[in-house]
Amino acid sequence: MTIRRLIDANNSYCSSILHTPSSISCVTESCSCFILAGGKSTRFGKNKSLALLGDQYMASVVANNLQSAFGSTAKLVGADEKTSIQLGLESVIGARESNGPLAAIIDAMESTTSSLVAFAPNDTPFFSADNFAALLKKMGESGSDAVVVVGDSSASRTHWLLSIWRKEPCLSILRNEYERGVRSVHGAVSDLKISKVEFDAASVRNINTVSELPNQGTI
Question: Quick one: DSSP state of residue 139?
Answer without folding.
Answer: H
